[in-house]
Write a structure and sequence with these properties.
With 249 residues, the chain is α/β, with parallel strands linked by helices. Helix content is 41%, strand content 16%.
């Protein structure tokens, strides 16, 4: 089969649903540009391509987690030491949640997250880790049975909320506070059906709770009712009972 001669300059070009005319006509075809192995690769860093990556993260997350049973997301510091009382509480919490019939979802990292995943795994439950790409890469802890790594924080946050029936928040830093206030805001604004939020460790959370009551509520920036959006406890059994009660278990 011979190769056809180059056509004269087109006055109109149809590229899928797009029509180009006169000096907006592009050389070649869409297939030709797709299959051409040479050329500029900067397109992989453009916003339209990022949209496709974001979409793929949602699809992968939904696909991996869609068949989870009722689950509780457990947040806490990656810096919690394995020999600390907070770590041991996380292990006991993960174990107790599984015994109450829940899967356990964490950020998949070390510290408090590892503790909760460890407790869930030791209790023969479903231990889920939702990791995040960071400059100081942590990787998923060894107690995760189902793990998904994300590039984008907002996609990961969606998974924490969509596939959990409640949150238990262990002592943590800025990332933990971000997740806590995201959950509180979603419940307060009724973007999600109300679900329980339990702060574990009254001594650790006392300063925050006092500030919310004495500064935020007292200053008219939130209502007294907003303080009822969360519970504070030092007892693993009570934490599990609170999330179980509010989700009707």
């Amino acid at each position: 089969m011979g190769v056809p001669e180059e056509p004269s300059q087109l006055e109109e070009q149809r590229l899928g649903p797009v029509v180009r005319r006169r000096d907006q006509v592009q050389p070649g075809t869409t297939d030709q540009r797709l299959l051409d192995t040479e050329g500029d690769s900067e397109w992989v860093h453009t916003d339209p391509w990022r949209v496709m990556r974001i979409q793929s993260e949602f699809v992968e997350g939904f696909g991996a987690l869609a068949e989870l049973p009722s689950a509780i997301s457990v947040f806490g510091s990656a810096r919690t030491k394995p020999d600390s009382p907070e770590y041991e509480a996380g292990v006991r919490l993960g174990r107790a949640l599984v015994q109450a019939g829940f899967a356990v979802i964490t950020g998949g990292g070390p510290g408090a997250m590892e503790a909760a995943n460890r407790g869930a795994r030791e209790a023969k439950g479903i231990s889920v880790g939702l990791g995040i790409e960071l400059p100081f890469e942590q990787g998923l802890n060894p107690h995760v049975d189902i793990g998904v790594n994300f590039r984008y924080f907002f996609v990961r946050k969606t998974m924490f909320v969509k596939y959990a029936q409640g949150f238990v928040v262990l002592p943590g830093g800025l990332g933990t506070l971000d997740e806590l206030f995201e959950a509180l805001t979603l419940v307060q604004t009724r973007k999600v059906t109300r679900f329980p939020i339990v702060l574990f460790g009254s001594a650790y959370w006392k300063g925050l709770v006092d500030w919310l009551r004495d500064s935020v509520v007292a200053g008219g920036k939130a209502s007294e009712h907003d303080l009822l959006l969360f519970h504070v406890t030092d007892d693993v059994e009570e934490a599990v009972a609170l999330v179980s009660k509010e989700v009707g278990r």
